[in-house]
Write a structure and sequence with these properties.
The chain is of the alpha+beta class and 220 residues long. It has helices at 3-33, 35-59, 65-98, 106-111, 116-159; strands at residues 163-164, 169-171, 177-183, 187-192, 198-204, 210-213, 217-218.
Amino acid sequence: MSLISLAPKIVAGSALAGFGLAFGRDVYRQVKKNWLILVVVGSIVFLLFGIFISAVWVSRNYRTWAGSLFKRIGAILSLCGCYLVTYFLILFVDFLIETDPQQNDLETVLTHDTGTAYLVGLAIQNLILLAGLVVGLRQRRKRGIAWDTEASNIAFFEDHGLEPLDDENFRDEEGNRYRLKNVFNSELEFQAEGRRGKRGYILFDENGKYVSWSGLTNIS
């Protein structure tokens, strides 16, 4: 840094710091005087979460066309409701900060000159909406893989004569019952019930698809 630019940068930094402190003090004073702002801001946070979740549900995929239709319609209605209510609450918070709270008629709230709080709130609102849409789109591939894996594993059990009994137990075509004992990186180990020293192993790939069944085996 040269001496020519040193002083201007120091001054600019001090000015920005002073602006930030002044803005923070103004916001604190307004919030202290207007407890209603805290209630409204809390409501906005809750509604922003609703916007995010609704956007995720709008953009992600569904297993059936019926699920896609009804869930998307519900998500769109929820998204529109949360977005509109959040928008008006942001406008109201900006009104409380920027104007005289005694002038609280609806026309004044809707037509007042908006300030920083309005712009920041609107930016956050739209960023959260966009984030929800992106997250939903990113979930599509994973959800598709999960459904494909589930269908493949059902077929795997049928092809190998295995009957699932619950989340941790199944029975083979010879009537042997197996209970899940250990889960490894690419292998499930099952203990044969009532068969000392007997195990069964299912190997699975990186997506969770079952690829091989060992049958009843002895442990060494």
